Every structure is written in structure tokens, then in C-alpha cells.
Amino acid sequence: MSSDARPPIVDLATWQAARDELLVREKAHTREGDALAAARRRLPMVEFDGTVEVVGPDGPVPFLSLFQGHDELVVYKHMWYDDTPHQGQCEGCTFTAWNLKDASYLNARGVSFAFLTTGVWPEVADFVGFMGYTLPWYSVRDVPEPIGGEMGYLTSYLRDGDRAFLTYRTTGRGNEPINGSFGLLDRTVYGRGEAWEDNPEGWPEGQHACWYWRTDADGNSTWGETGRPTAEWTRPGAGPVTTLGRHGPHH
User: Fold this and answer.
1) Full-model pTM
2) What is the residue range of 107's domain?
3) Which band of pLDDT confidence, cut at 50, 70 and 90, is reported for residue 250?
4) Number of structural domains in the chain
5) Which pLDDT score, from 0 to 100, does residue 1 have?
6) Of 42, 120, 137, 224, which shows the fewest CB atoms inside 10 Å?
7) 3-state class of 12 per DSSP?
8) Is residue 101 part of a domain?
9) What's the CATH number where 123 sits?
10) Whole-angstrom Cα distance, residue 194 to residue 209?
11) In 10 A of CB 33, how many CB atoms?
């Protein structure tokens, strides 16, 4: 790597002065985030039928049961490829799910968490077991919005007795707060290593967005037929592959 692709070297006092200057902007960013969170809490909400059934390990259950006695529920809606081997499932949703594998602190605050997906339950159960996920998963196949519908969304709900309400949802980069890896990468010198980022002159050329979300058996990034969602390589029995095995678009 060229020495041009590194920050300039300065003494600690000079570095601290630059760091303190940036901290002013970071604090302003935090306060704006607080203001946005306050605005979210002031959104209206949509009532829907919480008795609609979803399918989990115990068979069909009413959606209201996902609250597990709490008044609030957050879900991530995981995209799904039907009749597809594990390596063909969504790399972005795997990245999201892998970064949130425990909800103890949410539960302590009175918020439940679950994953929803449109896959048929036997396929979903097999995938969840392979990945070692312990948070609740449910199939919402053919269930209308705001429980089912389009996947890839982080969605929040409120319960008032037997009544259920949609309070918030977001997708795309709005899901980034779940992914702690993003926050850490954004605090490194070379960031996410993606072409869209604003980098100093001489920095390594970035690759396409999300390039490291899939890798092959040798750890090389690839979105080709030999790749798996990167976290899958940590799972027992995850061997080399030669196809994604997809038969159509995700649901």
C-alpha cells in the first residue's frame, strides 16, 4: 500500500486538536439524531388486526403473541428465496440478522424482537437451525401488510390490550442502526471500502457497495456462484459451493 494512502503523521497535541474539532460536528450529529427520534415518537399509527396468524415453531399463532407480553415489538422482515439452498438466501438480510442475535436489553426495556419472512415454515426452520439463530422467527407467507408485505424492512409495532398498531418502518440504509459492523467500519481509516464513499486523494479505490457481504471458501469476496453470505462460513457443515441455487426473485 502506498504511503500516500495513509493519514498525515502529527504529534499527539495536533491530533487531539483535530479530533476535538471533529467532535463538535459529531455532537451536532448526535443531537440531530435525538431530534429525529423525537419526531418518530410523534408519528401517527395505523391499527390492524393483530389476531391474524403467522407460522412459527409451534405452528400458527396470532401475531399478538409475538409481543410476548410486552407492549412494543420490533421486527426485521427477512427477504426469502423459495426452494433455495442456504447459500442462496439474501446476503443483506443475513448481514442484518447476524448483527442482532440477542434481544436481552430490548426485552428488559419492554420491547420484543422477532424476524418475519415470507418463506414457507419448513424451509425457514431449516435455515434458522443452520445459522444458529435463537431469536424468534415466523413465516408471514400470504399475510397482508402491515404484518407481511414487502420484505427488507425494520418495523415497529405497539400493542394496547388486544389491539395492534403499526408505528414505524424503514428500509435500505434506514436499517443500518441494526448493523454494528457499519458503525465500526465508519470509524476506521479506510471505512467500508466502497466506491461511493468520500475519501482523501490517494486512498485505495473502493469496490461496489456491499462487496464483502459474500465470500468464497478461500475468503475472497464474490457475488458469483461460489459465494455464500459471509457469516455462513462460520456455521458447521458450510462447505464450498458452485451455485446459489436460486430459481427466481426473492419474496
Assistant:
1) 0.94
2) 46-176
3) confident
4) 1
5) 57
6) 42
7) helix
8) yes
9) 3.40.30.10
10) 5
11) 11
